[in-house]
């Protein structure tokens, strides 16, 4: 019995290494194709910087603070894509009231993903 278990876990380990390797590869491909000027233009059109001003004076954290919060978290791109499409409740700085987050207006998910990648790279 124990030998079967050790074979299984060895296989699992090999699989894990494979999966992690592909994630790293995908990650580097994504940052390679990042279009920073398109991302910033989309953010500007949607008034994102009104609240997420880079100086921190808006009611929401600057994108570089969010990038630090999500650094190394594999689920971040999916989570933030969903955030921008579904308007979850958020709390503004210095406020106890919840408001719905703005839903992004974009041509398609690829444009939103590009913006998310840009945010995470700040
Ligand atoms: C009316 C103000 C406002 C506007 C406009 C706005 N946001 Fe936000 N955003 C917020 C607030 C408030 C939060 C919550 C901050 C917190 O929880 O500390 C937030 C959170 C976020 C988060 C983090 C979500 C999470 O779960 O951690 C991201 C990413 C984000 N906004 C991106 C954007 C983008 C991109 C735009 C433009 C399409 C945008 N925001 C426009 C106020 C705004």
In short:
By secondary structure, this protein is mostly helical. It is built from 6 helices and 2 strands.
Describe the fold and architecture.
- This protein is mostly helical and 122 residues long.
- The protein folds into 2 domains: 1-33; 35-120, Cytochrome Bc1 Complex, Chain D, domain 2 (Orthogonal Bundle), CATH 1.10.760.
- Helix content is 62%, strand content 5%.
- It has helices spanning 2-32, 36-45, 48-51, 63-70, 76-86, 109-120, and strands at 89-91, 98-100.
- α2 crosses α6 (109-120) and α5 (76-86) crosses α6.
- The structure holds heme C (HEC).
- Residues 43, 46-48, 50-52, 59-61, 66, 80, 83-84, 90-92, 101-102, 104, 115, 119 line the site of heme C.
Essential attributes:
122 residues; mainly alpha; Cytochrome Bc1 Complex, Chain D, domain 2; two-stranded antiparallel sheet; globular; binds heme C
Percentage of residues in helical conformation = 55-70%
The CA-CA distance between the termini, in Å, is: 50 Å
The number of distinct helices, counting runs of at least 4 residues, comes to 6
CATH homologous superfamily (4th level) name of the largest domain: Cytochrome c-like domain
CATH hierarchy class name of the largest domain:
Mainly Alpha
Bound molecules: heme C
Q: Kindly give the count of domains.
A: 2
Question: What are the low-pLDDT stretches, counting only 5+ consecutive residues below 50?
Answer: none
Biggest sheet strand line-up: 1-2
Shape: globular
Largest beta-sheet characterization: 2 strands, antiparallel
Based on the structure given, which CATH architecture of the largest domain is correct?
Orthogonal Bundle
Strand content: under 5%
Structural class: mainly alpha
């Amino acid at each position: 019995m124990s030998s079967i278990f050790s074979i299984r876990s060895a296989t699992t380990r090999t699989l894990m290494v494979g999966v992690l390797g592909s994630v790293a590869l995908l990650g580097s491909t994504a940052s390679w194709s990042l279009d920073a000027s398109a991302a910033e233009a989309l953010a500007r059109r949607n008034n994102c910087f009104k609240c997420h001003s880079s100086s921190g004076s808006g009611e929401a954290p600057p994108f570089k603070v969010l990038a630090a919060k999500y650094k190394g978290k594999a689920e971040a791109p999916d989570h933030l894509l969903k955030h921008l499409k579904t308007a979850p409740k958020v709390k503004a700085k210095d406020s106890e009231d919840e408001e719905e987050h703005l839903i992004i207006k974009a041509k398609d998910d690829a444009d939103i993903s590009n913006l998310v990648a840009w945010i995470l790279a700040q």
